[in-house]
Amino acid sequence: MVKEFKEFSTNAVFIAGTEVILDGYTSSKELGLYTFIRTTTVAAQVIIDGVPITLSPNQIVSLTPNQYFQFVTGEKLVVYQFNREFYCIKDHDKEVSCVGILFFGNTAISSVILTENEAHKFCLLHEIIVEELDTVDTIQAEMLRILLKRFIIKTTRLIKEQTQVDHIYSDKLDVLRNYNFLVETHFRKEHSVTFYAQQLNKSPKTLSNSFSEYKKGPLQIIHDRIILEAKRLLTYTDKSAKEISYELGFEDASHLSRLFKKHTGVSPSAFKKSIHNF
User: Are 101 and 156 in contact (CB under 8 A)?
Assistant: First the structure.
């Protein structure tokens, strides 16, 4: 079952359904849409950015459009997909926006495990979403956005509980989310912490202090994002290491090569060769 809402005036898209939605990802490719996958009674096998992952029964995972995804096995799934035009352009509270905890927190993949009671509540919400997708009128778009926001709020609350982020000052969380979003937007050209600190109206030192309670500092987040994109391009495209280095903002290909080898232990060319040999 797949139901789709399209708003041609804004190019907004919202899709809801089962694992049938994921049939287009039998080989790894960019998702292209913000995606939620909820397992019900059966576990699922997926590959996210080249990493095989088992989703337990009653688990929700949230993914961003630029992540590479492959669907391996799974049934009785609930899948939602949407683009920025559908949800992100609306004026949402910062924690449940497209810059929120679910999409730009301090982990690459956000997921939560549902209790039986919580799973039942999400099932009821899904029934309402499906019903609304069949109700075509002038206020359908707004109702669907409200229902999606409810889903995001409920999931955000759970991930805050399960990752115990409530003990951290909310302003630090805001800095983390906004920083990650800025890195996602500019990492292909901007590689210095100074640039992002200026965008956030902070000094580099103040910005670094905001990350004191996390495992990664601001520079490491930039480097990790560059390496992740380099791996994606080396794995899923025919571009050479030199072409990729220029695409990621390095005037000298040797600079990316050194950074890549420092993080992975191998050069970009060796990494690409190992992928092809595998």
Answer: yes
What's the predicted TM-score (pTM) here? 0.72
Contact 136, 244 (CB under 8 A): no
List residues bridging with 112 in a β-sheet.
60
Spell out the domain ranges in the chain. 2-163, 170-277
CATH topology of domain 2-163: Jelly Rolls (2.60.120)
pLDDT digits (tens, 9 = 90+) for 65-116: 878 899 999 999 999 999 988 887 555 566 666 666 677 654 457 889 999 9
Q: Are 256 and 250 in contact (CB under 8 A)?
A: yes
- pLDDT at residue 213 tops 70: no
| Contacts with 58 (C-beta within 8 Å, 6 or more apart), sequence order | 38, 39, 40, 41, 113, 114, 115, 116, 118, 119
